[in-house]
Design a protein that fits this description.
Layout: H1 2-20, E1 24-30, E2 37-45, E3 48-56, H2 72-87, E4 92-96, E5 102-109, E6 114-121
Parallel strand pairs: 1-3
Antiparallel strand pairs: 1-6, 2-3, 4-5, 5-6
């Protein structure tokens, strides 16, 4: 009986941990040129997905591998929204993609020209690490 109870407790713990684990997408763009970027690096570690793009070049700052929380169309919409905000000199903020549980947070550094933003579910997370 104790083994069954222990098994149930472990199963409940694993389920609770799995429900808590949310995916996070972090994008950092710095120093690109009119045709794109020289360095594009994509890293996936657990539920965190990072895309870093830097230096002028010809590569697009885009994902190769996908993830479950956001579609490519939604990524483009969020990216365009943030670019438009930066163009309007709104250098930081948070937002929610209408009709979804996706939240995003962005910061643009005017001294370096670096844009950093994250996309998460249910609540904004402005930690870009």
């Amino acid at each position: 009986m104790k083994i069954i109870n222990l098994t149930v407790v472990i199963a409940m713990f694993l389920f609770a941990f799995n429900v808590q684990a949310k995916e996070k997408i972090v994008i950092k763009k710095e120093g690109g040129g009119p045709k794109g970027y020289r360095n594009v690096k994509e890293v996936h570690s657990g539920g965190t997905h990072k895309l870093s793009c830097s230096e002028p070049g010809t590569e697009q700052c885009s994902w190769i591998e996908g993830f479950t929380i956001v579609t490519s169309t939604q990524l483009v919409a969020i990216d365009q929204f943030i670019e438009d905000k930066i163009g309007d000199k709104d250098y930081s903020g948070t937002g929610n993609l209408a009709g979804t549980n996706l939240w995003f947070c962005w910061v643009y550094d005017t001294t370096t020209g670096t844009t950093s933003y994250s996309i998460t579910e249910d609540a904004p997370d402005c930690n870009f690490e």
